[in-house]
Design goal:
This protein is mostly helical. It has six helices and no strands. The chain has helices at residues 6-23, 25-52, 59-75, 85-96, 102-131, 139-152. It starts with 5 loop residues before the first helix and ends with a helix.
Length: 153
């Protein structure tokens, strides 16, 4: 019998992990609840940004924006950060909300959102550099496969 290829082993590990995670209902609920909480916080953030920009929008509109952009990010997963798709959605929704100057508000809103993302990315890299616990990208999946080889057999 031939030895399974590394890619095949990786799929076996992923399948086992998915099965294990779906069995633990409490962890699954906690994961779902944290996703919903994060989505609500993003909606509140969009609402606050638009209010700071002087627009009269509702909290529901902020939640609608982030819900729409979340779906678009999933649909355009092959584009890093859904760059372009998210901006088009934000601009379209802001225009649909009937703001006085949709082009200026959209541009300011998108600039604030993307600047914030860049700030968090920079802080994350800084934290990694300070911690000194960097790992090669190639080590991750192969290390997981090797660690699980005993569990699969």
């Amino acid at each position: 019998m031939t030895r399974p290829r590394p890619l095949h082993q990786a799929f076996i590990v992923i399948r086992k992990e998915l099965k294990d995670s779906l069995r633990d209902r409490r962890a699954l609920f906690a994961s779902l609840a944290s996703f919903v909480a994060g989505w609500i916080l993003l909606g509140c953030e969009s609402y606050l940004i638009l209010r700071i920009l002087g627009e009269d929008v509702s909290l529901g509109q902020g939640l609608l924006m982030e819900g729409t952009v979340s779906v678009l990010r999933i649909a355009f997963f092959f584009i890093p950060s859904a760059f372009g798709a998210a901006e088009a959605a934000y601009a379209s929704l802001i225009t649909g909300f009937g703001v006085a100057d949709p082009a200026a508000v959209s541009l300011a809103f998108i600039a604030i959102k993307r600047s914030q993302e860049l700030l968090w990315i920079a802080l994350g890299y800084l934290a990694l550099m300070i911690s000194g616990k960097r790992k090669s990208i190639g080590e991750g999946p192969q290390a997981a496969v090797q660690a699980r080889e005993g569990d699969i057999a």
